TrEMBL record:
InterPro entries for this protein: SMIM5/18/22 (IPR031671)
Record flagged with keyword Transcription regulation: no
Organism: Delphinapterus leucas
Protein name: Small integral membrane protein 22
Lineage of the organism: Eukaryota, Metazoa, Chordata, Craniata, Vertebrata
Localization per record: Membrane
GO cellular component: membrane
Length: 44
């Protein structure tokens, strides 16, 4: 169980670092897929 928790923690940390990197670079939507996913998220 501890191994699973570590994996989830590492994955969340990596995702958070990616998002912060995009925010710092002022390029939050780097592809059409990013933009499309955000629009769909806003609609629903």
């Amino acid at each position: 169980m501890a191994l699973l928790t570590e994996d989830v923690e590492q994955e969340l940390s990596a995702t958070a670092q990616q998002m912060l990197g995009k925010l710092w670079s002022h390029q939050l939507f780097q592809s059409e897929w990013d933009t499309g996913a955000f629009i769909i998220f806003l609609i629903f």
